[in-house]
Amino acid sequence: MRSIKKICALLKKVKKRLLKLHFDTNTGHIGGNFSCIDTLIVLHHLVMKSSDRFILSKGHSAAALYLTLWSMGKISEEDLETYAKDNTFFACHPSGAKVPGLLFHTGSLGHGFSLATGLAMAAKHKKINRQIFCLCSDGEWQEGSCWEALAFAVHHKLKNLTILIDENGLQGFNRVSEVISGTDLKERIAAFGACVRRVDGHNLLEIKKGLTPPASGKPLVLILKTLKGHGLHFENLLESHYLPLTETQYNMALKKIDEDLKL
Amino acid sequence: MALEKIRAAFGPRFVNAGVAEQNMVGVAAGMAREGLQVIVYSIAPFIYARPFEQIRNNICFEGLPIRLVGNGGGYAYGHMGPTHHALEDCAVMSTLGLRVLVPAFDEDLNEIVKYVSGPTYIRLGSDARSAARTIPTYAPWRQVLDGKNGLLVALGPLAGVALDALTNWEFKKRPAVWAVCELGEGNVPQEFWEKVAGSSIYIIEEHKAEGGIGMQLAYAFLKKGIQPTRFLHRHALGYPFGTYGSQEFHRRQSGLDSESIKKLFLQST
After folding, report:
1. CB distance B33–A115 less than 8 Å?
2. For position A4, what pLDDT does the model report?
3. pLDDT tens digit string along A9-20?
4. Domains parsed from chain B with CATH numbers
């Protein structure tokens, strides 16, 4: 187990490399990667055991997942260099047999929760002590399949299942609340019978604490209040969903990471 | 009533996923990913059409050995109406790369259910054969009636309809009837290709023309340079007058019932 201080130092390195990855490849979806990278690092470094499972249902944050695996030494720098290039195993949505721990191709929203539920059911059936984690986006909850999975997971009392929701409040073309109002996501999910918590998704201690297994024997849903493009020039703006970085923006962002994560 | 015997036999391994097919297929994929053998069952359209993307992304991209079982292939749900019919299922599942199996007779299932090598779709229908009639041991493609008047290829249970219609005919006036229980050309025996060359071929399927066994065969003939003397394809026509009825009604509209099959060969002799 690493201390929070060490995780902060690691995050600084990871965020800079993530930024470089986007800049070098001129790719978008930076906002969603920077809203969930804190959670992914805490989850993988401080919470998950080696036998646990993780599904990135918000597959558009593949780069954040790759950087997390890179920070754990599971993906090499050479592999990372192939990101979003021809003949790569590391596409902009998680695919390919060379991604360590990847169980499914994700990217189409609304699939991950059901897949994680199946993994949790299998572990329960096989009597394996294993926790299944799945990270969704908030806009993803406009998919009916998420609610199908939630009802099913609660009914089957899958206490080995933890669903994380990156609530950054922005989706393609607008704010989530302006597309289909969903600001009461916590209440809606609680009404289905799951154990629901909401924490600051950029506070490492709160994230770790939020992931403590509930005593209730219910599936846990942890809502992470985040900012899309956290720490970048287009923080909390729709532009962070789509646009790549200019050189000036890239250099500004590098400086800001240094300032924000001063140790 | 329906699945009570299976539920009793499987005990806690029987999971009723409720009216939530997308989740059902996703959960099945999660279970299969951990090495469990999973069979997913529903009325045919609700297993191949509603959760299409889950089948594609969660099962097929991973090559998981899941058996999707769709009950009521073709017009089998008759009066229930078109929402409950499955007329393009074999094509859709074939396109995704699933192995598509269509048992013709009840005992075929004993063999078919053993196939667990990869993503598989099993289309169930009613065995149409008269109770007393015996048939050769299961093979994906097999001749179930001999005859001299060309070859009749029947997909799944239509083989039973053809058998009942033609068995008592004179040998030289009736066609050889082939029961086809698997789409694709991978398991077609060499004997079939040899017999088709220079013969008339008639194909009947309770499935739309697009992507069905008829089109698949025509493509195979072209690739192999095989030229039948006649190629006649009878397939599901959908709902040509916007009216609905029993399976027999729809088969009759599409020329797939017993009388229509007989007329086909009365005309050709």
Report:
1. yes
2. 84
3. 999 999 999 999
4. 7-124 (3.40.50.970), 141-267 (3.40.50.920)
Task: List B residues 11-50 in contact with A (Cβ-Cβ < 8 A).
Answer: 12-13, 15, 17-18, 20, 22-23, 25-36
Q: Which of B15, B18, B22 sits opposite A114 (nearest CB)?
A: B22
Look at A145 and B26 and tell me if their CB atoms are within 8 Å.
Answer: yes
| B62 within 8 A of B26, measured Cβ to Cβ | no
Instruction: Tell me which residue in B17, B25, B58 faces A152 most closely, judged by beta carbons.
Output: B17
Cβ contact B22–A144 (<8 Å) = yes
Q: Judging by DSSP bridges, how do beta strands A174-175 and A170-171 pair with one another?
A: antiparallel
**Contacts with B42 from chain A: Cβ below 8 Å:** none
Residue B114 has pLDDT above 70, yes or no: yes
pTM of the model: 0.95
Q: What is the CATH number of domain A4-98+108-260?
A: 3.40.50.970
